[in-house]
Amino acid sequence: MTVPVDLVPVEPRVSAPFPPAAPPPPQHSPRGSARGAALLKEPFKVPTSPSQLRPPPAVGGGRPAAMALVETAVRGRLLPWPRVVLFGDSITEFSFQEGGWGASLASRLVRKCDVVNRGFSGYNSRWAKLILPRLIAGGAAAESTVAVTIFFGANDSALKDVNPRQHVPLEEYAANLTSMVRYLKSIDITEDRIILITPPPLQESAWEKECLAKGDKLNRRNATTGEYAQACVQVARDCGTDVLDLWTLMQKDQDFSCYLSDGLHLSMKGNNFLVGQLWSHLEKRLSALPSLLPYWRDVDPQNPEVSLLGAALQE
Amino acid sequence: MTVPVDLVPVEPRVSAPFPPAAPPPPQHSPRGSARGAALLKEPFKVPTSPSQLRPPPAVGGGRPAAMALVETAVRGRLLPWPRVVLFGDSITEFSFQEGGWGASLASRLVRKCDVVNRGFSGYNSRWAKLILPRLIAGGAAAESTVAVTIFFGANDSALKDVNPRQHVPLEEYAANLTSMVRYLKSIDITEDRIILITPPPLQESAWEKECLAKGDKLNRRNATTGEYAQACVQVARDCGTDVLDLWTLMQKDQDFSCYLSDGLHLSMKGNNFLVGQLWSHLEKRLSALPSLLPYWRDVDPQNPEVSLLGAALQE
């Protein structure tokens, strides 16, 4: 089944916020049995019309018996759908709001994997460490997890005397991050699939206004948050994971205030900055993921079953 | 453990595209054993400090043994995380792009369920019917699926003589939709969790430009798409599922051209329109879903384990 090159046009797309992803390779056929990390290594399998598979007749208005056979054969041959888990505090929880970095990531990775939001507004690393085993378990779920971002520190670095409820001591923050990475490794989510993200810098004047509006004093300091960011970078080094040092990157030779909406959370520009940076970390490892199910121009209209179910029926 | 009302403040949020969701009810505690549809019916469980559970000591810098015990106890007690599945063509596949209806839905449902994108650009209902069993299987995955949107017809209604590759006859389109609903019911995704969405209206002049740019003739007609929309509504009636008649709603007493970006796909305004309409269908059934894990102000800082793991440890 060969599709002439001139029949593969550019897909009409609604205005994309990013440069469109590379066009899907023709004739990819992710194998039903491939899972998680294996997917990253597995080359695209070019489907052939196997001699042992007699293509079912083209689907017309009424061939229920043949279709029932196909459906029965395919049932239980679930297509593994990888996922990226975003684990963090409010900056993660809000990441699917308009222009958010989570939604942008999901859009870039569409047909490749799901991007699931495990953001918990207000949480610190102490609480995060406790709930992580309730969010990601070992086995198939871990195998299908191709990347995890761990993004805490904005609450941990709250000042102890003004905000003791959220504050976590620096050493414990580092220990908690280490513990989370260790937990993930223990369920076979290897360090190459983990990305730590440091808290962004804090714009004290803007955040102070938010605090004052609630009758509180300024409860965070940029310099303190910077210490937590540094600790996060060190944990990543020690654990052999990737790290995105947002605190440093956002302050590098520029005024970072435009990246924040209220001094603490990300503005639209901050969301774009984060997803751009994160993408440079993820692209290299996730670009190898196959686009799931064939590009529509590659579906044989006479025998869609072969194009769409071929891999599953061969197993 | 009672939190005084005046201690539950409004959470600072970055600019939300929609009215913010209702604040999470205090002290909710979704049960680890509750699943899927059961979650919808299950009332919030107010956690108590059970006499049989001795709260572990507050986590300080170094109580690894106690923490290890907690972690061991919780392992395997995965918090069930419901999901909404968006199944459709390019209008679904592109739904996480900037301002997209899928991302908006995910934002509204954050901490309640995942919204996963199963959009396949260019696909028609004939192909969709074939792949559905590869995307949603029975068992736990079906149980956790609290809603499915089935959104095809924009490609099926392509004109047979100009676009035979995507065209599906009207009767077969209806039969395919019916078959998909039947499949979902067969794996215990009941009709009350299924929403059919009709194709949007087609703005012929704009879409013709797109076709001409590719050297093609206009390959769809609004009147024809309307017949498919009508068939979709009829299938929903016959199957007892909900339906969102986008084709009719977008043309009701208004010029619908603003809802489309290229005559076929949704513009930002069209995305907003769709998510607004869809939300009115989903809100009533998904608003009862508990917000997963406690609101941060409800976490007892002295005994976060009780707040965060209480339900899991009780099982």
Automatic annotation (TrEMBL), chains A, B:
Keywords assigned by UniProt, alphabetized: Hydrolase
Extent of Pro residues compositional bias: 17-28
Family matches, as InterPro entries: GDSL (IPR001087), Iah1-like (IPR045136), SGNH_hydro_sf (IPR036514)
GO MF annotation terms: hydrolase activity, acting on ester bonds; identical protein binding
Residue segments, region Disordered: 14-34
Highest taxon, organism lineage: Eukaryota
Keyword Ribosomal protein: no
GO biological process: gene expression
Homology family: Belongs to the 'GDSL' lipolytic enzyme family. IAH1 subfamily.
Function field: Probable lipase.
PANTHER family: ISOAMYL ACETATE-HYDROLYZING ESTERASE 1, ISOAMYL ACETATE-HYDROLYZING ESTERASE 1 HOMOLOG
Full protein name: Isoamyl acetate-hydrolyzing esterase 1 homolog
Classification of source organism: Eukaryota, Metazoa, Chordata, Craniata, Vertebrata
